[in-house]
Amino acid sequence: MVATKDLDVSKHLVHCASTMARMTAQLEMGEDETCWWVINHRAQNHVLLGPLRFFNHGCRSNAKFASHSSKKFVPRIKAKIKAGDEITLFYGRRPPWFRIFIITVSRLLKIKSLFDT
After folding, report:
1. What InterPro entries does the database record attribute to this sequence (predicted)?
2. 5 is a domain residue
3. Which end of the chain has the lower number of beta carbons within 10 A, N or C?
4. CB burial class (10 A; 0-12, 13-18, 19+) of residue 27?
């Protein structure tokens, strides 16, 4: 993710908000090459839906995860960022809550349908 304009400290990037959807037994791992973040929250796996999954890791990141609810995350700027600079997040040192899985498009459509109702 790259900043298109200068960003000040403490700014929330609400247009990059992402939501967790609980994974179920029907959502098995697939065979295509779509990558999704899977977060373990309250002993259940959740898929992270939204643009937040496209942010790269940075050991000296300039943004951090901010929670707006128990299942909604928004990146928050923690150091001034100039237009053209990459916005990065620190995922943590081998965080137990973060894994990447591959999910088929058909399974993704099942997840999406949960939000369409």
Report:
1. SET_dom, SET_dom_sf
2. no
3. C
4. buried
26 to 15, 39, 74, 94, 107: CA distances (angstroms): 30, 17, 28, 27, 8
DSSP-derived secondary structure for 47-102: EEESGGGGPEE-TT-SEEEEEEETTEEEEEE-S-B-TTPBPEE---SS-TTEEEEE
CATH number at residue 82: 2.170.270.10
- pTM, two decimal places: 0.65
Q: Taking all residues of the chain, what is their mean pLDDT, rounded to a whole number?
A: 76
- Give the count of domains, the chain: 1
**Domain of residue 36, residue span:** 14-116
